[in-house]
Amino acid sequence: MEVKAVSRFVRISPKKARKVANMVRGMNAKKALSTLKFLPSKTAVPISKTIKSAVANAKNNYQMNEDSLYIKKIFVDQGPVLKRVQPKGMGRADIIRRPLSHITVYVEEKKEE
């Protein structure tokens, strides 16, 4: 059984978040969290929070063993874009785009063979 956790409206570009998400896909949950802890990316913090939430959901709601959980699916979707205005010379203005992301993590218990 797979357990899901979602973080919505995260102030990080989806393109940058997907790089980190691709790195931890398929890893053991504890190993992924320790990898993200030492990653020098701003994106690592919200992704690790979402993984921790998925592990807590599995442990508390479905009584799964957190040592045997692995990341089955992880993906980052595009959220809305916040548009801001920056004044420029001669009375002009530039639009600054601040993209938001939706991070989704599915964890599952590893089958012992």
Give an overview of the whole structure:
The protein is of the alpha+beta class. The protein has one domain (2-109): Ribosomal protein L22/L17 (Ribosomal Protein L22, Chain A), CATH 3.90.470.10. 35% of the residues lie in helices and 40% in strands. It has three helices and three strands, in the order βαααββ. The chain has helices at residues 14-24, 29-37, 44-62, and strands spanning 2-10, 69-87, 93-109. The chain has a three-stranded antiparallel sheet with strand order 1-3-2. A hairpin with a 5-residue loop joins strand 2 and strand 3. The longest helix has 19 residues, at 44-62.
CATH hierarchy, class: Alpha Beta
Number of alpha- plus pi-helical segments: 3
* Fourth-tier CATH superfamily name: Ribosomal protein L22/L17
| Domain count | 1
Radius of gyration: 17 Å
Question: What is the CATH topology assignment?
Answer: Ribosomal Protein L22, Chain A
The fraction of residues assigned to DSSP E strands is 35-45%
- The second-level CATH architecture is Alpha-Beta Complex
Mean pLDDT, to the nearest integer, reads: 95
In the predicted model, the low-confidence regions spanning at least 5 consecutive residues are none
Largest sheet at a glance? 3 strands, antiparallel
Distance between the termini: 17 Å
Order of helices and strands: EHHHEE
Shape: elongated
Provide the structure class: alpha+beta
Relative helix content: 25-40%
Q: How many distinct beta strands?
A: 3
The largest beta-sheet arranges its strands as 1-3-2
